[in-house]
Design a protein that fits this description.
alpha+beta, single chain, 129 residues, binds 2-acetamido-2-deoxy-beta-D-glucopyranose, 3-stranded mixed sheet, Immunoglobulin-like, 2 helices, 4-stranded antiparallel sheet, 7 strands
Length: 129
């Protein structure tokens, strides 16, 4: 009987430990574009589209936009403002890099650089969480 209850305790301890392990592992840091960073890439937005297609984004994950201060920034915008590169009243705007943004909601998210013409020539990223 004592053996049964102590193995039950061990089992519970293992379950609790693995739950904690999972919650630590679940928060992934995604460095946008990997070594490319967040910048203007020759050839347009394709590199960021390709990068995003190789990632799995989950609520709680962190997006890291790595850029040089004063040369780029990152704004999250609503879907309707993504294609026209409209940075008026963005959802959020971070002007200091590297910018770490936590993904707090599921669904599509849209990011652009607000510097003149940067978004138009491809400094934009859309992801699905
Ligand atoms: C950001 O870019 C710089 C210059 O390329 C690099 O040294 C640094 O490690 C990058 N930081 C991150 C978080 O990737
Ligand atoms: C840009 O977005 C703002 C805020 O959503 C909106 O009020 C404005 O009409 C948009 N401008 C254009 C040119 O679509």
């Amino acid at each position: 009987m004592a053996g049964f209850s102590s193995s039950l305790l061990v089992l519970i301890a293992i379950m609790v430990a693995s739950m904690q392990f999972q919650s630590t592992v679940a928060q992934t840091r995604h460095v946008v574009g990997d070594a490319l960073g967040w910048t203007i890439i020759p050839g347009g937005a394709g590199a960021y589209t390709d990068w995003a297609s190789q990632q799995t984004f989950t609520v709680g994950d962190i997006l890291v936009f790595n850029f040089t201060n004063g040369q780029h920034d990152v704004a999250e915008v609503v879907a309707a403002n993504y294609e026209p590169c409209n940075s008026t009243r963005p959802i959020s705007l971070v002007t200091t890099g590297p910018a770490s943004l936590t993904l707090t909601t599921a669904g599509a998210h849209y990011y652009i650089c607000t510097f003149p013409s940067h978004c138009q020539i491809g400094q934009k990223l859309t992801i699905n969480v």
